[in-house]
Design goal:
12 helices, 74% helix, mainly alpha, 237 residues, 0% strand, globular, single chain
């Protein structure tokens, strides 16, 4: 069966998404933070690794591991993880318009890897307007496959070496710093820069908030700052 041009384009978009995500995933310190927490806890390696695909989010997984190790009730752990990951609702809402023409089953599959990295790398690429519906799915899928594979694969190594890393490395701020870097790379407009600066700074400064909610608070405040900047620009015109 001859290879169609559409197939080659899909492969190209898939590889592009994977390569972009691979570049982002060079920063592995959030995985080291989770690995260090698992290694230092009473959880087994299997239990720690099992939490990775279930949560698929560094801050929530780190909080869940720490609370389970402290003997917190499972229901409280689940609710806390949901609160920490509430920002993913915002990401999902932002990605939804780009896949509105896809079948419900496919959209449900695409929703699984929605996280900071997928949103902040895919949306700016989609906004360039040169990818059609199938191209967006291919690009997103390439990035998602790399993201999930890297997250699960490197956590095994992180759990092995994590407990040996000194606390002076400050791994607890790894996830906020990674988010700040992603925001800086993904913004071009004035309001985007304002949102990125506010969210990035707050994510790092608020790292000590209860229930690891610094990323959630930073995301909400950053969006609000961006919207306020946009309204200010419109008024001044």
């Amino acid at each position: 069966m001859p290879i169609q041009e559409a197939d080659l384009v899909a492969v190209r978009d898939l590889l592009e998404g994977g390569l972009v995500e691979a570049d982002v995933q060079r920063l592995s310190t959030p995985r080291l933070a989770v690995g260090a927490a698992v290694s230092a806890s009473s959880l087994t390696t299997a239990q720690g690794l099992a939490s990775a695909p279930i949560v698929l989010a560094g801050s929530a997984q780190l909080a869940a591991v720490q609370m389970l190790d402290a003997g917190v009730a499972p229901l409280v752990v689940i609710v806390s993880a949901l609160v920490i990951n509430a920002r993913i609702l915002l990401y999902g809402a932002g990605l939804a318009p780009w896949f509105r023409d896809q079948p419900v089953r496919r959209r449900l599959l695409l929703a699984i890897p929605v996280i900071d990295q997928t949103y902040l790398t895919c949306v700016p690429r989609f906004e360039r307007g040169d990818l059609d519906s199938s191209g967006r799915v291919a690009y997103y899928s390439g990035g998602a496959v790399w993201l999930v594979g890297a997250w699960l694969g490197t956590q095994a190594l992180a759990i092995t070496i994590g407990a040996r890393l000194p606390e002076s490395l400050g791994l607890e701020i790894a996830a906020p710093l990674a988010m700040a870097g992603l925001l800086a790379k993904s913004t071009t407009s004035r309001q985007g820069v304002v949102a990125a600066v506010v969210a990035g700074a707050l994510a790092v400064l608020a790292v000590g908030l209860p229930m690891h909610t610094s990323l959630l608070v930073a995301t909400i405040v950053g969006i609000a700052a961006g919207r306020a900047s946009q309204r200010s620009s419109e008024v001044s015109r």
